[in-house]
Amino acid sequence: MASGTVPGAGSGFALFQNPLAVRDAPYGRVQETVMDDAGHRAAFDEITRWPGYRETPLIALDDVARESGVAAVHYKDEGGRFGLGSFKALGGAYAVRRHLAGIVEAKRGAPVTTDDLLQHRHGDVTGGVTVTTATDGNHGRSVAWGAQLFGCRAVIYIHAHVSAGRQAEIERYGATVVRTPGNYDDSVRQAAADAAANGWTVVSDTSYEGYREIPRAVMHGYTVMAEEALRQWPAREPPTHCLVQGGVGALPAAVAAHLWQRLGARRPHFVVVEPERAACLYASARAGKPTAITGALDTMMAGLACGEVSSLAWDLLARAGDAFVTIPDQAAIDAMRLLAARPAPVIAGESAVAGLGALRLIAADPAARAALRLGPDSRVLLFGSEGATDPALYAKIVGRSPEAVAGAFISRDGTQPAGD
Ligand SMILES: Cc1ncc(COP(=O)(O)O)c(C=O)c1O
User: Fold this and answer.
1) Residue of the CA atom closest to atom 15 of ligand 1
2) What average pLDDT does this structure show over 304-331?
3) Tens of pLDDT along 36-82?
4) Ligand 1 pocket, residues with Cβ under 6 angstroms
5) pTM of the complete model beyond 0.90
6) Which is nearest to 296 in space by CA: 312, 275, 313?
7) At what angle do helices 391-398 and 164-171 cross, to 10 degrees?
8) Distance CA 368, CA 285 (A)
9) N or C: which end of the chain has fewer CB within 10 A?
């Protein structure tokens, strides 16, 4: 694939083909330091034992495939994940569990089981631990849930633009929520400072110099979703394209790593998608190194409103990201409405549909189609990373509440679609 910028012909997207991407190289030593197979297997073994575990559905969007002029589009709908509404349930909670197991094992000098932790059998130890993180909603919800599930305290930092609804969803799991001025990156700094002052453990989804192990556990949790998608993939041939939205980049990096490890050179072309006003991964790809974006990061796609990449994620995406795309908010709005209006509706939040929004813009643009080799034989894999995690905003955008959209549809087997 040639490198360079393909301007989206008037439709507001931008596409950069990454000159650092390697397609034919094996999954190498640098990549292993980010995500390794043993870490994936440990996460899969653990998370599939948790109460309430169920594979999320991989939905065939035949209507989108037709509209986009490709053979197939499949959408992994994370809206129903553990009742938390997003794929983030897999990451933060898993990192909390690993952290607590490490502390208990060091104290007791013996291994602890999942059941021990779920039953709070070492509550005298875990009850003295406080985990903390900054969040725009979904990650904090996962850390709060993990703390409640495995028996420790959580203090969660949210920035000025996080909605009251998202705050309530975190508090629901017993966490203390602290609201800070400024944007997401400011809340990250505040959480780190307060953790240092109080002896708390930061369970962040973003990694920085000297802080890799916990974000690595978070990302290993996310690989469970990618593995499920490959097991559910209905065709003999693997996907040819995968478009995944990024905030700090942990989600796309975990997915790209897993696809590379499992499929090698047959892995799909990997496209990282961001909102145009919070495109730190795109800026990093253009610069060839981690590059921060400043400002209000003003986008409706709250989960993607990040200005600084995770260094761990960047180490992987620098080679695994074939292209980086930015899209306007309108593309997400259109994609949410399209999914809600299908005969079998899919309830998706703003950040869930960036990959779908990008696919539709790219598919309608001959230069971008050619650049990504998107054609009638292409098989596209998308990750719908959340349901309606902010129901009030969902209703404003779609014109109906998530319940009304779900209620309008009763499937042939009498079940309703997964949603938040
Ligand atoms: C729903 C949703 N999708 C995608 C992302 C992006 O994930 P990451 O920041 O790991 O790139 C987030 C992050 O919060 C999210 O909440």
Assistant:
1) 303
2) 96
3) 999 999 999 999 999 999 999 999 999 999 999 999 999 999 999 99
4) 86, 88, 136, 138-139, 205, 245-252, 303-304, 306, 351-352, 385-386
5) yes
6) 275
7) 140
8) 17
9) N
Contact 382, 359 (CB under 8 A): yes
Ligand 1 centroid–CA 304 distance in Å is 6
Per-residue CA distances from 342 to 97, 104, 126, 170, 294 (Å): 39, 49, 46, 31, 38
The whole-number average pLDDT for the span 145-152 is 98
Which of 245, 297, 393, when mutated, tests ligand 1's pocket best, judged by the most ligand atoms within 8 Å of its CB? 245
Residue 211 backbone dihedrals phi, psi, to 5 degrees:
-130, 95
In this prediction, residue 185 has a pLDDT band, given cuts at 50, 70 and 90, of confident
User: Ligand 1: which of 161, 351, 386 to mutate, judged by most atoms within 8 Å of the beta carbon?
Assistant: 351
Instruction: Tell me which of 94, 222, 385, 420 to substitute to probe ligand 1's pocket, judged by most ligand atoms within 8 Å of the beta carbon.
Output: 385
CA distance 214 to 69: 41
Q: State the distance from the centre of ligand 1 to the C-alpha of 249, rounded, in angstroms.
A: 8
Q: 131 phi and psi, to 5 degrees?
A: -105, 150
Distance CA 333, CA 313 (A): 27
**Cα of 131 from ligand 1 centre, angstroms:** 20
Q: Supply the residues annotated as catalytic.
A: 88, 136
Q: Are 383 and 268 in contact (CB under 8 A)?
A: no
**Cross-strand bridge partners of residue 211:** 208
Ligand 1, atom 14: closest residue by C-alpha: 303
Tens of pLDDT, residue by residue over 208-228, are 899 999 999 999 999 999 999
Cα 163 to ligand 1 centre (Å)? 16
Alpha-carbon dihedral sign for residues 337, 395, 412, 353: positive
Ligand 1 centre distance from Cα of residue 352 (Å):
8
- What is the phi/psi pair of residue 415, to 5°? -95, 160
